[in-house]
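User: I've been trying to design a sequence by hand for this structure and keep getting stuck. Would you show me what you'd pick, starting by listing the structure so we're on the same page?

Assistant: Good idea, let's start from the same input. This is the structure you sent:
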């Protein structure tokens, strides 16, 4: 970089790798998102991210180690645009349902609907979604029981989902509620892993989190600039 700057006659100092690494942890990453025109449908999910480094060499030489390290990336994706509206990084021992309330806190504006898989089927998640005046689209467990079985007309969102599934069936409920749009979060994670390799190279947790936030921000820019528009075509 120093030689390139000299050829370009640019009098700027080039920081070394250690300086960049130290400052990375304090970097604030603003997620580039297009302004919302109204209440949004947010799809939430998480995925595992490998920590690339010495563990990769050990795995190649000696097989997968029990001490292999990986991080968990939690995303809130806009169903209409595919953009990442909010991201959070944790260690692998955090459950998805624990992170949902903070994910929703990180989203500005109105939320019309929140969709997630069965991992978010907890009372705390339903309460966090209700506080944002949004509709929860979360499939309950197959052996789930109503939290207020004495009510003839369910008022709790989870009980309403159970009643709908009992009336029309699980497959029909997923279709009517738009639950299948949840696959957009998986598509976004697939794009993220294909584009950036699905791993981080930083050693400290704070640096790893910022590295992943930068990947999310870059993916949003790519989606905004190059995502194709799809239209139904009549036969």
């Amino acid at each position: 970089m120093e030689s390139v700057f000299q050829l370009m006659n640019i009098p700027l100092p080039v920081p070394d790798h250690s300086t960049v690494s130290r400052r990375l942890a304090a970097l604030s990453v603003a997620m580039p998102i297009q302004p919302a025109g109204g209440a949004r449908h947010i799809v939430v999910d998480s995925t595992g991210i490998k920590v690339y480094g010495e563990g990769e060499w050990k795995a190649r030489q000696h097989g997968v180690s029990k001490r292999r390290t990986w991080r968990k990336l939690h995303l809130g994706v806009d169903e209409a645009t595919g953009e990442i509206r909010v991201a959070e990084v944790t260690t692998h021992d955090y459950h998805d349902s624990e992170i949902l309330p903070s994910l929703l806190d990180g989203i500005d504006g109105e939320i019309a609907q929140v969709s997630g898989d069965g991992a978010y089927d907890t009372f705390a998640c339903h309460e966090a979604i209700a506080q944002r005046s949004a509709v929860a689209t979360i499939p309950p467990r197959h052996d789930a029981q109503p939290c207020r079985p004495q009510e003839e007309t369910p008022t709790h969102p989870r009980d309403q989902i159970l009643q709908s599934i009992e009336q029309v069936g699980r497959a029909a409920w997923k279709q009517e509620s738009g639950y299948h749009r949840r696959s957009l979060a998986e598509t976004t994670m697939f794009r993220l892993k294909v584009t950036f390799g699905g791993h981080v190279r930083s050693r400290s947790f704070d640096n790893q989190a910022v590295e992943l936030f930068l990947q999310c921000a870059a993916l949003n820019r790519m989606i905004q600039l190059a995502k194709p528009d799809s239209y139904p075509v009549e036969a």
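That's my pick for every position. To get oriented when you compare it with your attempt: The chain has one domain: 38-226. The radius of gyration is 21 Å.
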